[in-house]
Amino acid sequence: MLNMDHVTALGALGMSAVAGLPKCETWKPGDKLKILLVGYNGKRNTGADVRVVEMVKQINRALGEDRIEISVLTLDVDNIKDYFDPSTNLIEFSTIYFKDLLDACSQNHMAVLCEGSTLKSRFANALTLFFCEAAGVMKKQGKPCIAYGSEAGEMDEFIRKAASNLCSDTYFIARTEPSLKIIEDMGLKGHLGTDTAWTFPPADRAWAEEELREKTGWDGKKPILGVAVINPFYWPVKPSLVKLAKSAVTRTWEKHYEKWYFFSWSEEREKAYRAYMDGIADAVNRFRADHDVHVVIIGMEALDYDACQDLSDALDSPAGIFSSRFYDGHQMTAILHSLSMLVTSRYHARVLSMPGGVPCIAVSMDERLYNIFEECGHLEDYYFPADEPELGQKLVASMEKLWEKRDEVSQEILRAVPGYLKIMSDMGSFFREYVEESFPGIDLAPPPEDWLGYLPELREELSELL
Predict the structure, then answer these.
(1) Which CATH code for domain 205-404?
(2) CA 464 – CA 466 distance, rounded (Å)
(3) Would you state the pLDDT for residue 427?
C-alpha cells in the first residue's frame, strides 16, 4: 500500500532523475573546489552539529582552507552560525527538501554525507531519503559523493532498494563494522572509519563548575551523576497528510514534529515509555540515596527537553536540566566532562564524554550505542536496551558495579580514545586522496607532515592522551 514515505521516496528518485537538466557547477583546473556537507544540522542536536563542525576543521586542514569552499546545509542558520567562521557558507533548507537539495548539490562540485544515521529507517525514512537524494543527484551529475563516518541499520525494503540505487556511486566510510557489513551487503563500496566528534572541544571547566553551582545547586564537592534521556519510542517520524489535516482542523497538533511530519505514538508506546522512564528514575533514586551524588539531567537534542522534564518529575527530588535547547555543543561537552558517571540514551553523550574519561552506562534504542560499547569491551556489564524488562532493578545493579570500578573503567575509556583519533586521522588522509583522484590536477595545499596534521588542532587534554 502506497504511503507518504513511498511518496517521499518517489520525490527523491524524481529529483535525482532530473538532476542532469538544470545547469550545474562543474569543477575545472584552477577553480576552488566547492564541497557541500549534507547533514541534519540546525535543530540543536548536539551530536549532529558538532561532528560537522569537526569535519569542516578536518577538511580544511587536509586540503588547505584557501583551496576549497565549504558549504553546510542547515535547517536553521541561527542555530549553528556561531560554530563556523565566515568562510563557511551556511545554506538553509526545508524539511520538505526536494528542490532545496537539488539546487545545493547542483551548485557544488562534490558532496559529503555527514550525518551519523545515514542509512536506517529507525528515525525517519525521509531523513535517509534526504541523503539518498543527494547521492543520486551527484551520481546523475557525474560528481563525487562520500559518506563520512556513517552508520547503517535496519531499513524498510523499499528504502533499502532506493538507497542501493541512488548511492551506487557513493563511497562510504562507515562508523562501525556492523554498519560496514550492511553497506557491503547492499553492494555499496566503503571501509571502516569512526565518528568525527572526538576532537570537539569543551567550554572552560571553570564555566561548567560555576554553571553547575548557580543553575543546579551543586556544592562543588559531591560527585555528579548525569542522565541523558530521550523518548526512545517516538520514532520513526513519518509524513502524514491525514494527521496534518486533522491537526489543522482540531488545532491540537498532537505528536507533531513539523510541517507534515509526526512522531509515532500509541498506547503500547506510551506504556513502554513510562516503563523506560520509571526504570531510570527508580535506579537514580536508589543510587542517589545510597551514594549522595548530585544528579543532573542532560538533553542532547532540543526535542529531548520534555523527556528531561519527565525524568525530573519522576525523581524523589527534582534535578537540574542541561538542554541543548539552551546550551551550545561546547557547553554541553563541558558539562559531560564534569560528571563522575553517566547514564545515557544518546550516542554522542557517550562520544563527547569519553575524552573526559567519564564512566558510562547505556540505555539504548538502537545499534549505535551497542556498537561503541562493544568496541570498548563494556557491552556485557554496562549496556541495556530501552525496553529491558525490570530496567530499574538491573540498571541500579549496573550502576553499583560501575561505581566500584569507576577508576578502572575511566582508564579503559581514556586508553580507547587515541585509537579513535588515529582512525579519524586516516579518514582525513583518505579524503585527500579521494579528492585528488576525483579531480585530477587539483592544486591543494602541501600534505600534512604527520598523521596529527590530518586532525583538527588538538587541545592539550587530547594531546596528553597520545
Answers:
(1) 3.40.50.2000
(2) 5
(3) 99
